[in-house]
C-alpha cells in the first residue's frame, strides 16, 4: 500500500485513541473534534483494509490488528516527538508542548503560583495540565510527566523532588470545636466527625500520627468521603468535620484563623511532591525549564 502524507496524521490520531480508549479524551488531547477523529480512523481503516478499533456506546477497544499496529508504531512516533524537542537546543527561545498529570492540590499550590512567570519567560511553550487525583500510567496515557507525593511515584520512573517534606495535621473550624470540643489524643478522633480521604488508587486513607517513638495509623470515623482537597477544605470551613491535610495546603487558613490545627505534637511527617517521568525518553526542554522554575520560586518552600 503506497504511503500517503495524510497517513502520518491518521496514525498519530490512532495512537491517541489507543492511549485513551476514548474518542472524546483523544480529541481533547489533539485539539480536534471527536467527529474529525472518527472520520480519520474510518479513512485509515478503509485504506488499510482492516478494522483497528471496536467501538460501542460504552467502550472503545483495540482489535488484534489495532494492538499490533500500536505496538509497532508507538516507539517510532515517540522518537519523532523527541527529535522535535532536540531542535529546541538550536532555538533562541524554547517551543513545544508539555503534558502534565497532577493532583488538584499540586495544581493549586505548586503550579498555579509559578505559571504566570513561566508563561512570561517562555511564551512559546504550551503547558497542557490534566488535574486528576487518580493514579494513572502517565506514559501510557500520553503525558510527559506527573506530579505525586514521594511515596506514590512508580519505581521505574525518574523522580525529582520539587518541595520539602510536609507535616500532616488535623484541622477544623472554630465553630466545630465550640460544638464538639478539641481532641487531646488521636484516639479521641473516634468520637469526632472526620472528613475521610479516598486516595487515587481507591483506598481510604488512614490518618497517620507520630510522637517520639509512638506511631499510629487510624481508620477514622466519618460520614463524608472525598477525593479532592478543595472540597475537604470547604467542608471543614463549614464546620462539617475535621480534615487531615498537608500543612502547606491549609497554611493561609490557619494563619487567618478560619481553621485551627489540633494534635500538633502528633503531626506526622510525609514525603513532599516529586515530578516524575520516563527513564526511557528524552526530557522535553520545556519540562526541564518548569522544574528549574519551581525550584527557583519555591511556592511550597
Description:
- It is a single chain.
- The protein starts with a helix and ends with a helix.
- Helix 1 packs across helix 4 and helix 2 crosses helix 3.
- It has three domains: 83 residues, Arc Repressor Mutant, subunit A; 100 residues, Periplasmic binding protein-like II (D-Maltodextrin-Binding Protein, domain 2, 3-Layer(aba) Sandwich); 105 residues, D-Maltodextrin-Binding Protein, domain 2 (3-Layer(aba) Sandwich), CATH 3.40.190.10.
- It is elongated and about 75 Å long.
- The protein has a five-stranded mixed sheet with strand order 4-3-5-15-6.
- It has 301 residues and is of the alpha+beta class.
- GO terms for molecular function: DNA-binding transcription factor activity; sequence-specific DNA binding.
- This is LysR family transcriptional regulator.
- Belongs to the LysR transcriptional regulatory family.
- Keywords: DNA-binding, Transcription, Transcription regulation.
Q: DSSP strand (E) fraction?
A: 15-25%
| Poorly predicted residue ranges | none
Rg over CA atoms: 23 Å
Terminal CA distance reads 58 Å
Task: Provide the domain count.
Answer: 3
What summary fits the major beta sheet? 5 strands, mixed
Protein structure class: alpha+beta
Q: Please name the CATH architecture of the largest domain.
A: 3-Layer(aba) Sandwich
CATH class of the largest domain: Alpha Beta
CATH superfamily of the largest domain: Periplasmic binding protein-like II
The shape is: elongated
CATH topology heading of the largest domain: D-Maltodextrin-Binding Protein, domain 2
Number of helices: 10
Protein name: LysR family transcriptional regulator
Keywords: DNA-binding, Transcription, Transcription regulation
Family: Belongs to the LysR transcriptional regulatory family.
InterPro entries: LysR-type_TF_proteobact-type, LysR_HTH_N, LysR_subst-bd, WH-like_DNA-bd_sf, WH_DNA-bd_sf
Amino acid at each position: 500500500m503506497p504511503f500517503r502524507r495524510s497517513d502520518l496524521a491518521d496514525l498519530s490520531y490512532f495512537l491517541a485513541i489507543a492511549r485513551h480508549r476514548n474518542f472524546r479524551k483523544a480529541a481533547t488531547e489533539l485539539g480536534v473534534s471527536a467527529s474529525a477523529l472518527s472520520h480519520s480512523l474510518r479513512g485509515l481503516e478503509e485504506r488499510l483494509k482492516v478494522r483497528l478499533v471496536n467501538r460501542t456506546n460504552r467502550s472503545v477497544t483495540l482489535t488484534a490488528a489495532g494492538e499490533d499496529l500500536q505496538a509497532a508504531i508507538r516507539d517510532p512516533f515517540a522518537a519523532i516527538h523527541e527529535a522535535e524537542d532536540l531542535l529546541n537546543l538550536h532555538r533562541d527561545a524554547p517551543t513545544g508542548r508539555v503534558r502534565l498529570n497532577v493532583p488538584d492540590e499540586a495544581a493549586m499550590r505548586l503550579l498555579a503560583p509559578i505559571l504566570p512567570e513561566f508563561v512570561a519567560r517562555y511564551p512559546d511553550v504550551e503547558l497542557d495540565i490534566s488535574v486528576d487525583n487518580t493514579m494513572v500510567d502517565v506514559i501510557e496515557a500520553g503525558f510527559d510527566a506527573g506530579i505525586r507525593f514521594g511515596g506514590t511515584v512508580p519505581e521505574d520512573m525518574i523522580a525529582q523532588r520539587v518541595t520539602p517534606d510536609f507535616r500532616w495535621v488535623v484541622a477544623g473550624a472554630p465553630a466545630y470545636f465550640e460544638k464538639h470540643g478539641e481532641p487531646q489524643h488521636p484516639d479521641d478522633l473516634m468520637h469526632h466527625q472526620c472528613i475521610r480521604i479516598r486516595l487515587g488508587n481507591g483506598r481510604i486513607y488512614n490518618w497517620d500520627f507520630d510522637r517520639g517513638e509512638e506511631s499510629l495509623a487510624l481508620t477514622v470515623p466519618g460520614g463524608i468521603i472525598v477525593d479532592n482537597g478543595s472540597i475537604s477544605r470547604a467542608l471543614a470551613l463549614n464546620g462539617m468535620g475535621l480534615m487531615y491535610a498537608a500543612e502547606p495546603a491549609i497554611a493561609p487558613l490557619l494563619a487567618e484563623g478560619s481553621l485551627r490545627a489540633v494534635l500538633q505534637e502528633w503531626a506526622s511527617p510525609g514525603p513532599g511532591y516529586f515530578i516524575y517521568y520516563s527513564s526511557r525518553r528524552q526530557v522535553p526542554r520545556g519540562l526541564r525549564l518548569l522544574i528549574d522554575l519551581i525550584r527557583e520560586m519555591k511556592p511550597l518552600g
